[in-house]
Amino acid sequence: EYGEVCKGCLKLPSKRELPVAIQTLRVGCSEKQKRAFLAEASIMGQFDHPNIIRLEGVITRGNTMMTVMEYLGNGVLDSFVR
């Protein structure tokens, strides 16, 4: 619920391209929301398991905050759980 999630492409040093999901923190969010966004990214970065989405990186440049995660093309989890 932080903001928009878009599909992107991460170019790796090996010249390989990796499909990724990019979650952007919405403009005008509170400091508390910014801290929560970064805390979530920090926790995600600690996991290394095939059943958990992999965090590829975090962008914090200027007012822009984004997380770059492994892309899974089957839609949102809510549609499978309900």
UniProtKB/TrEMBL annotation:
Return the Pfam families for the record.
PK_Tyr_Ser-Thr
Q: How does the record say this protein sits in the membrane? A: Single-pass membrane protein
Q: Name one GO biological process term.
A: axon guidance
The protein's predominant localisation is membrane
Record keywords: ATP-binding included? yes
Q: Where is the Protein kinase domain?
A: 1-82
Instruction: Write out the entry's keywords from A to Z.
Output: ATP-binding, Membrane, Nucleotide-binding, Receptor
Its annotated compartments are: Membrane
User: Does the keyword Hydrolase belong to this entry?
Assistant: no
Name the Gene Ontology molecular function terms of this record.
Answer: ATP binding; transmembrane-ephrin receptor activity
Tell me which InterPro entries the record gives. Ephrin_rcpt_TKs, Kinase-like_dom_sf, Prot_kinase_dom, Ser-Thr/Tyr_kinase_cat_dom
Q: Which GO terms describe its cellular component?
A: dendrite; plasma membrane
User: What name appears for this protein in its UniProt entry?
Assistant: Protein kinase domain-containing protein
Q: Which organism is it from?
A: Xenopus laevis
